[in-house]
Amino acid sequence: MNRLTLKRLIVISNKEKKSRELTFEEGLNIISGANKTGKSSLIKSIFHTFGCEVRFEPEWKGLIDKFVLFFQYGERDLCILRQQSLYKVFEIKEGILVKLFEDDKFHSYSEKLMNLMEISMVCSTKENIQVSITPPLLFRFQYIDQDDGWNKIGESFTNMKYIKDWKGHTNKYIVGFQGEEFYQAIREREIIKNEMINLSSKMNHFDEFLDKLQGIVNENNNMALIKKLNLQTQKKIADGIIYKIDKLERERIKKEELLSKYKSYRYEKNLEIQFIKKQVQYLNEDHKYAMEEDEIIKCPFCGTDHINSIEERTEIVKDIQAGNKLIQLHRREIEALEEKISVIEKERLELNNDYYKLKLELEKLEESASIIDDFRMQGQLSIIETGNNERDNIKDEYDSKIVDKDEMDREIKRMNSQKRRKEITNQLTGFYETVLNQLNIPTSYIQLRDFVQTLTRLGSDSPRIIYAYHIALYLYNLERLKSPFNILVIDTPNQQGQDRQNLKNIDSVLELLTSEKGQVIIGTERETGFEKEAARWIKLTDYRSCLSEEKFQHHDQLISKLNSIS
């Protein structure tokens, strides 16, 4: 992983022919302005561009058509253009924009983005479908929302809860307990296990073949009476036949291995088709349900309202069509495999016919010269010797993989150990105590569960505890490694009805957040006293009008340029 730094946000309204551009710097960035000047909407737009679904004001949601975010990841300068559900990702190389990929499917976009960011974490949906970690899961601790963010920790985004155990996995990932090295180790272990399965299959094949051949040799030893006859002509013929039989036997082994491989592929493709059919069935049921419901659907489990617009239903239909296309693709792949299997089986039949014809020739020679038995047995023994050597090589490779797997098991166990969990908890607690002391909050409030502060029995101190925890986690990761967790975005609560001391405490800890090793963006209604120390101070002054016509033409041209890049 690498450090993430936000550079520039652009939001565009074609409806009003207006736009807004914000630039950010390393260190502390302050966005100040009175209530209803657009602070929260602009801040939410940052994460919305990445693919995190946020709760926009209805007016903003109907106003903004396009979102552009420029950011730096490690040494790479990148850009995301989001237009509804379509994502386009670009890299800027020597001032030239190069499109890396585009996608209108959230999970395939997320997978490509995580590959770009070299993030290996995988998750499972509640339907047990494996997916890569998604932006809302990756950034859930990097944002304190103005609304829910001061009541809950890491739950500001709405498109996370369909992931199985989404809290537990990301809690462990962000602190490094089950971080990037853990998921890389899991992936490497799976590769080793698959290699071991293949090697074991090869050994079993050799064992079966060599046992049969050894049985034939033993039978020949019992029956044959070797007679030394001066039959040079028969010897040459027999030698040639044995050579051909030896060659045919090797080819038969190869055909059997290839046939087994393609049949396995065919079996896997059939399983995938059954799985996709099931998912398409679920999507059809979802679409039928959506068509029968109103524009707002209330979740029967959590009570959350979900939009049931024509666009949402269209997305389900697109997913159904994509699933059916994928089924058709798999079926074509199975047809191709069937053709290959048919060709190989035909070739195997021809090899068997040639093999048995040669064996008949040897039997005819036996009538005139018993020395043929000796030659045949020598050929079989040669095959046995070569086969045993090859099997020993495979066994050595298999034993080596066992050692590699055991080593990976020990490493994964070490990363999951209670000792390591305690070490990480102690390191995080150290930063947490520093922040709480700055806020004049007793450190006895610290109660971490899976590395996250619990919020029971905190009373009116709950917002300050949430604030302190996010800052502590940010500072911990800032010290630990360069990563996407080196940013923190804070949208402070509206000043109305807020305790004066609470607002003062929020400002007081900003001195801990000025380091240019990371990046903090804070939205606030009032001056904090740190505007001069901030790397950038953005003032919003117009009530319900943070957009302007000033740069719209320039921004519109940028969108046209991005959309024209193939």
Features:
Helix Hairpins, P-loop_NTPase, single chain, elongated, 566 residues, alpha/beta, six-stranded antiparallel sheet, 17 strands, coiled coil, Rossmann fold, 2 domains
Describe the secondary structure blueprint for this structure:
Blueprint: E1 4-13, E2 18-23, E3 27-33, H1 39-50, H2 58-63, E4 66-73, E5 76-83, E6 86-93, E7 96-103, H3 106-116, E8 122-124, E9 130-132, H4 135-138, E10 143-144, H5 166-174, H6 180-223, H7 232-292, E11 296-298, E12 305-307, H8 310-368, H9 371-415, H10 418-438, E13 448-449, E14 452-453, H11 462-480, E15 487-491, H12 500-508, E16 519-524, E17 536-540, H13 552-564
Parallel strand pairs: 3-16, 3-17, 10-15, 15-16
Antiparallel strand pairs: 1-2, 1-4, 4-5, 5-6, 6-7, 8-9, 11-12, 13-14
Helix pairs in contact: 6-9, 7-8, 7-9, 10-11
Coiled coil: 320-368
Protein name: Rad50/SbcC-type AAA domain-containing protein
Keywords: Coiled coil
